[in-house]
C-alpha cells in the first residue's frame, strides 16, 4: 500500500498565539511534519504572532525547541528542520490594539490562501476578527481557525457566532475539533458508508446499544483553573463526544461534502430526547497516597465541578428509536482509552442450547491509544467435546494490519490544518451545529447547579459505582476500560 501525499497550494498561515502551549505542542510540529512530507506548496510561509516581544531569530529558536520536544522521530531531520525554519517569521501583535497589524498586512501574500489560526482564548476572537477586517486582510482568500471552547452555553455560543459573522462568511470559519481529524474517526464513515455489510444493520432492529468512552488516566494538571469553570460536560461531552455521537448515529449524507455531512449531524442533535436527571451520573476523583484529589489540583476545596460524567441518551427517529446510547468520559480513570462500541443484538434463537453461553457481535472503533477497528464474531472453540462457542476478534489494528510504516498516521492537526488550506470544511463544526449542541447541553448543566454534588470515585477506577448502575439497570454492562 502506497500513501499518497497531495501538495496544497502555497499559503500563509498566521498563528495568533504563536508562543502558546497549543502552538508549541501541536500546530508547529504538525506543520513541520507536513513540510517533510512534501505537502506544503513552494512559497508557503508560517508567521507566528503574539504579544511577546521577540524577533524572528528568537522565535525560530523557540520553534526548533518545540519540534525537538514534540516533533517525534522527524525532529532528528536537521536538514529538513533548517529549511522549515527558513519559512518561519514572527511579528509582535496586540489583539486589542493596533501594534503589529500593519506589519502583518505587509507580510502576508495577496495571491495566497491566508489562514489565521486563533490559538487564543475566545474572548479575543471578536477583536481579532475586527482588526483583520480593519487592516484589509478579511477578503475572500482569508480563513480563520478557532479553537474550542465555542462559548460556555447557548447564549455565549450565539454571541460568538454573531460576532464572527460580522466580519466573515460561514464558509470562512473553521471551528476545529481535533477528534474529527483522527484517522479512525474518518474510517468510521468509510466502514459505515463504504461497505454493504454494515449499513443494513445500522439501526434499532439489529443494534442493542452503543457505547462511547473517552477515558483519561491523567488529572486536570495545569488546567485546573480553566477546568473548574468548565467540567467534563463542557470540556468533553458537549463537543468531542457529541461529534463522535453524531458520526455514529447520522443518516447517510447525499454526498461526502461539508454541508451534506454537517446537515446530517445537525439532524441527530435535534432528534435527541431531553436528558432525564436519573440518566446522568457525575463524579470527582479522590486523592491517593501519591496523587492529589481533584479539589486539591484545582485549589478549590468546595468545588462541585465534575471530572467524570456518564449518561444515557436516546434519539427519537426511525433509525434509532428504542436503542440507547451510553456515553462516558472522565479523568484519572484506569487507562487512557477512547472507543466506540456498537453492540449488536443476540441471535433471535440459539440452536446450541444453554451450555453454549451468551455471545454477541460487537464492532469496536478504537480511537486511542492504538487506532483500529475490531469486529467480534462467534465461532466454535477448536477441539473435541461438543459445540463450545467462543468470541474472537477480526482485528484491524492499523499498526498490525498495515505495518508500522503505513500505520504512522498524520496527527489530527496535520490533516485539519491542510483541510483549512484546501477549503474543505467537512471535519469542522458549523455554527448552527454548535448552537444545537449547547441547546441540548444547557438544561443538563442547569440541573447540576440544583442537584447533588459529584460523587467521589477512586483514582484508577472506572468512575463512580453509580455509573455502573446507570447501565446495569438496563441489563447491560460497560465495556472494560483498557488501552
TrEMBL record:
Q: Which UniProt keywords apply?
A: Carbohydrate metabolism, Glucose metabolism, NADP, Oxidoreductase
UniProt cross-references to Gene3D superfamilies, sorted A to Z: Dihydrodipicolinate Reductase, domain 2 (3.30.360.10), NAD(P)-binding Rossmann-like Domain (3.40.50.720)
Q: What general EC class does the enzyme of this chain belong to?
A: oxidoreductase
Q: What is its EC number?
A: 1.1.1.49
| Residue sites binding substrate per the record | 178, 182, 216, 235, 331
Q: Which domain of life is it from?
A: Bacteria
**GO-annotated biological processes:** glucose metabolic process; pentose-phosphate shunt, oxidative branch
Residues annotated as the enzyme's active site = 240 (proton acceptor)
The pathway where this protein functions is: Carbohydrate degradation; pentose phosphate pathway; D-ribulose 5-phosphate from D-glucose 6-phosphate (oxidative stage): step 1/3
Report one GO cellular component.
cytosol
Which residues are in the Glucose-6-phosphate dehydrogenase NAD-binding domain?
Answer: 14-187
Q: Which residues bind NADP(+)?
A: 17-24, 51, 148
Q: Where is the Glucose-6-phosphate dehydrogenase C-terminal domain?
A: 189-479
Q: Which PROSITE patterns match?
A: G6P_DEHYDROGENASE
Recorded catalytic reaction(s): these are: D-glucose 6-phosphate + NADP(+) = 6-phospho-D-glucono-1,5-lactone + NADPH + H(+)
Q: Which Pfam families match?
A: G6PD_C, G6PD_N
**GO molecular function terms attached to this record:** glucose-6-phosphate dehydrogenase activity; NADP binding
NCBIfam families for the chain: zwf
Provide the function of this protein. Catalyzes the oxidation of glucose 6-phosphate to 6-phosphogluconolactone.
Protein family (similarity comment): Belongs to the glucose-6-phosphate dehydrogenase family.
Name of protein = Glucose-6-phosphate 1-dehydrogenase
Tell me what organism the protein belongs to: Roseovarius faecimaris
**Lineage start:** Bacteria, Pseudomonadati, Pseudomonadota, Alphaproteobacteria, Rhodobacterales
- Per UniProt, what is the name of the gene that codes for the protein in this document? zwf
